User: What shape does this take?
Amino acid sequence: MTPRLAIIAFCLTAWLFLPCLSALGQSTHSPHSRFGFGDLQSGASTPQMGMGQLGAAWMDRHHLNTRNPAAAAYLTRTAFAGGFGIQTEKIMEGDSATQGEVGGLRQVAFALKRDGGKGAVTFGIQPWTNTGYDVSQIRVDDTADEYRISYEGRGGLAQAHFGYARRWEGSIWHRFPGSEASKADSVRIISHVTALGARFEQRFGSLVRSRTIDIANPIYLDTRVQTEESHRSAGFTAGFGHERLLGSQFNKDHKIVASTLLRVGGFAQLGRVHSINRLTRWASWQTLSTGPLEVDSIYQEEENHDIDIPLIWSAGIEVERNTTTGMRIRVGAEWEQAPWSSLSSDWLDPGVDFTDSHTAGVGVSVTPRGLDDANGIWQRSTYTLGWRQSAGHITLTQGELASTTWSFGWSTPMLGSRSGSSLNLAFQWRNLTADSTILGLQEHSFGAIVGFTLHPFFKNQWLVPRKYD
Assistant: This one.
């Protein structure tokens, strides 16, 4: 089999099996996930998670940016990104609290790129929303006395994508003044890089939600309302990135030993029609000693909704400084805006509406030494710190949803890999609430994500020791 046919077979096989993996990453305990599409995911890879989930101007030579389609053009070679995570969630309301652990696959993504090439093909799959809750409360009615109302939900929506990115480079000649006895010398260096990218996205999945009224008085029948929703939508995301050399320093051999880079970028999820097929079923239940038993199916109704997902855009900036000692420092920030208020709220629960969302994030990463000069794993590793705050998307009677996330990441090259693959870890602390008062429903979660960035060789050279450059 020729290398080209091997790549095609590899892509087709991975594409066929990726939908089977999507269900592994769709889990949460958040009671807020019962509204709308569920708990929205940013789609960031593990290295991005540690840096505030930045993606607009986050351009990396070795790690795949799974948010901005244009970023794949900056990769040096073919890359595979995958990861899974586990998190513990603590939900508090007044004096009561509950806690649980969830986990699953976060993403699978590929970028096919020839060494030294300017174009890259990307594809993969990742969760778009998560839904998973089981909450209840006791109420009192004058007729039926005490009763319990419970809400349960499960499922999630996944996003499969296929895209292409390409970059264009510009260069300048840097002149070195010579002495009176020697001629002046010059060297050609890349001064700026611009990349454009686009990808096709297919969102799909199902959400199952139920509401049960359990009346303590045995003369009354309990009632359960269950909805099953199938979601489908297709659309495009376009992105761009620009990198410019602001300053450079050369050694006596006329090689760059220090530099300062400025990056700007952004992407836009173009508006699309999202189709929802909903089947609602009302049923009567009676609680016996053996458990709940369905007595009668009262009513069943099927609905179809077509809603217009708005254009969502994000823009960011990043500065990278490389010193003569091999230290690399990156600092970035981004802003994201989504006009969710343009969506119809007819298919939501009473008292729940869409509202515009605004997200801000900042991040910093530090690599103490270059790989040639590093002394031990701690010096050649990269450390990241990030902050992200979001408000909006869903508004309840208590107020709009708001979340604050702090993150920390660690990435280190795999010494046994000739291709420069790496192990990535990220930890994040998140606080989500719809009410700023202490009596409101609040969620505190701590999660750990483990990811791998692999650069495969087709000649079985993964475990050959190499000298990093």
